[in-house]
Amino acid sequence: MAKKKEFSVEEKLRALYDLQLIDSRIDKIKSVRGELPLEVEDLEDEVAGLEVRISKINDELNQCSEDIKSKQNTTEHAKTMIKKYNEQQKNVRNNRAFESLSKEIEFQELEIELCAKQVKELNVQIELKKENIAQNNEKLEERKEHLTHKKNELGDILKETEKEENELLKKSKEFESKIDESLIISYKKIRSSVRNGLAVVAVERGASAGSFFTIPPQVQLDIASRKKLITDEHSGRILVDKALADEESVKMEKLFTSF
Predict the structure, then answer these.
(1) What pLDDT does 1 receive?
(2) Helix or strand or coil: residue 81?
(3) What gap in Å lies between CA 37 and CA 182, rounded to an integer?
(4) Which of 16, 147, 191, 227 has the smallest C-beta neighbourhood within 10 Å, fewest atoms?
(5) What is the mean pLDDT of residues 117-143?
(6) Distance from C-alpha of 106 to C-alpha of 100, rounded to nearest angstrom
(7) Is 215 left (phi over 0), alpha (psi -120 to 50) or beta?
(8) Which sequence spans correspond to the domains of the chain?
């Protein structure tokens, strides 16, 4: 098994700063996309939700139609029974039987009235559901149109940046391989804890970039010597000297323009 190459502190610092420049460029590409991916995702969820809602209302509409058919069948059956009982009344021989048939007729007439009332209510529900479907369809079409616009917008941005981002991601992995795993973990932890994602910064005018706290002269010398890793006691960021930062910035800019 080949022995893993050992890198000097300076090589690690350069690799770290290069990695920071790469990751910062990736951050910049992502910032161009902004909230678009989330907007597209939210719109997709909204469209799916509207489609489910419309489908559910259509199912309810179909059920109302089925219920109306059922009530109509019940009505027709009641009418048939009334006709039957009326015929039977003509042949009864006593008042008791006549009264019994009259009650049956009355029951069937009430059944017809109830069905008519229920059909009327169902028709009102159908009209309301049709209005609801029309409103939701109108909203669905508007959301779909908006989604298409946002997808096209995102697609154009991705088309412009995809190649560069993929190359940068490859380079990011490449430079990570030159750095100890524990150091990479620290680097990523710092990046996630600061708003601008800068975990490695240069010392400029006696202070770390973006900080107002002066770094003692001896510490500045230690940083410039590139013999050990030094972090800013206030922000926790890894510090490199300006000369190294300038050299790596020029080198990485040439790399970026080659994509």
Answers:
(1) 43
(2) helix
(3) 32
(4) 227
(5) 97
(6) 10
(7) beta
(8) 9-32+180-257, 36-172
